[in-house]
Amino acid sequence: MLAAAIPASGGLVLSTSLISVVDDDASVRAATENLLKSRGYIAQIFASAEELLRSPQLDETSCVITDMQMSAMSGLELLAEMRTRGYDAPFIFITAFPNDRVRASALGAGAIGFLAKPFAGQALIECLDTALNAYDGRSGI
């Protein structure tokens, strides 16, 4: 499936990138999904890391946008589990509790971006463009 995506630069490109959004807050999931879809991205949302890991589309995920702190499995634990399983999709972390230690942990684990909630939609799109450019169309595994 091809979708038209308008990158931050404003030009129109074709995108087959599947963006997985993982957050235990339904309003954040919905708002992020709406933002991504309004920019032409294909988005799927999950209420937990475990839901993403069970998803039949896991292999197609081009980027993961996830909350740092969730009840059963944290965003960092999700990143570690996906790397253990051989997935190299880039990660963008979002959190309502930003601090230097949490940011350093996320970036040290290999995150492409780290945003504090509430974040500007344009900031997320810029992180996503950077992540997808880094990913550069490689397969999810």
Summarize the structure.
With 141 residues, the protein is an alpha/beta fold.
How does the SSE layout of this entry go?
Blueprint: E1 3-5, E2 13-15, E3 18-22, H1 26-38, E4 42-46, H2 49-54, E5 61-67, H3 75-84, E6 91-95, H4 100-108, E7 113-116, H5 121-135
Parallel strand pairs: 3-4, 3-5, 5-6, 6-7
Antiparallel strand pairs: 1-2
Structure report:
Helix 4 links the parallel strand 6 and strand 7 (113-116). This protein has five helices and seven strands; from the N terminus they run E-E-E-H-E-H-E-H-E-H-E-H. With 141 residues, it is of the alpha/beta class. The chain is globular. The longest helix is centred in the last third of the chain and has 15 residues, at 121-135. This is Response regulator.
Structural class, by secondary structure, is: alpha/beta
* Distance between the first and last residues' Cα: 19 Å
Helix content: 25-40%
Order of helices and strands: EEEHEHEHEHEH
> What's the total number of strands?
7
Strand order of the largest sheet: 4-3-5-6-7
Poorly predicted segments = 1-14
% residues in beta strands? 15-25%
Main sheet properties: 5 strands, parallel
Radius of gyration: 14 Å
Number of helices: 5
Mean pLDDT, all residues: 86
Overall form: globular
Which descriptors apply to this entry?
141 residues, single chain, alpha/beta, five-stranded parallel β-sheet, disordered N terminus, 5 helices, two-stranded antiparallel sheet
